[in-house]
Design goal:
The protein is an alpha+beta fold. It has one domain: Lipoprotein localisation LolA/LolB/LppX (outer membrane lipoprotein receptor (LolB), chain A), CATH 2.50.20.10. It contains three helices and nine strands, in the order H-E-E-E-E-E-E-H-H-E-E-E. It has a nine-stranded antiparallel β-sheet with strand order 6-5-4-3-2-1-9-8-7, with helices on one face. The protein is globular, with a radius of gyration of 18 Å.
Length: about 160
């Protein structure tokens, strides 16, 4: 009887596990947690688990709750970006345009790929602190133009 309960428990846990996704040639894949604070009026803050895949030119960012519930998916390619949230889809001409509309400031998602690799990259108005990047921790601050913003990322090993 105990073996049956144990097997059932293992089966249920494995059914809840997120399947490993295949990374296509040229793509990168990172998962972890991110938090963003924007010093707007009123101030805004947001945190979520994330899966980032693709390249700076074309990719996908999935945001989920700690329990795995989907919050939003952002998909971009040259000339377009869209946010899928619930049953709604918001489309814009670029990733910067879309993130600026949603958060009050353009979020450098494309630059995040380089930061995750430990490359500082030059993003106007943003300053990335990669001192803890080998530990999977990145902090980036937008100093100008206003509003100021801070993006913190912790990558899962």
């Amino acid at each position: 009887m105990r073996w049956a309960a144990l097997l059932l428990t293992v089966a249920l846990l494995s059914a809840c596990a997120t399947p490993q996704r295949t990374v296509l040639p040229g793509e990168e894949l990172w998962s972890g947690r991110l938090a963003m604070t924007v010093q707007s009026d009123p101030p805004q803050s947001f945190s979520a688990n994330f899966d980032l895949r693709g390249t700076p030119a074309a990719g996908e960012l999935q945001l989920t709750t700690p329990l795995g519930t989907s919050l939003a998916t952002v998909v971009w390619s040259p000339g377009s970006a869209e946010l899928r949230q619930g049953g709604q889809v918001t489309r814009r001409g670029s990733l910067d345009e879309l993130t600026a509309e949603l958060s009050g400031t353009p979020v450098p998602v494309a630059a995040l790929f380089g930061w995750l690799r430990g490359q500082t990259g030059d993003v106007p108005g943003w300053q990335a602190d990669l001192a803890r990047q080998p530990e999977g921790r990145i902090t980036a601050r937008r100093l100008s133009p206003p509003p100021a913003a801070e993006l913190r990322v912790v990558v899962q090993p």
